[in-house]
Design a protein that fits this description.
Number of strands: 0
Shape: elongated
Length: 96
Amino acid sequence: MSAAWYDHSYTIRVPVKKVAFSLSPTLFRAVEAARRRARRSRSAVMQEALRLWIARDREAQRVRQYVAGYTRRPERQGDGRRLEQAGLESWTDLPW
């Protein structure tokens, strides 16, 4: 896209940071084909891709924290039975 065709209206209304990065020719062609089918701009596609990557990274971090918690304090034999009993006890005061 030449500079003469660039639409500055979006960047005037919304504060943005411009970035440049490299893609392999194969990945570039795949992205271009997909974004054209979806009728989306490169910026919109890259923003969505980065949001998804960040969400996946956050979820992976939560899983690592969960695993680390059980590594530091693993379940002991009988914990499952005690949890089941505690759960059943909480239902005993219900009227039905």
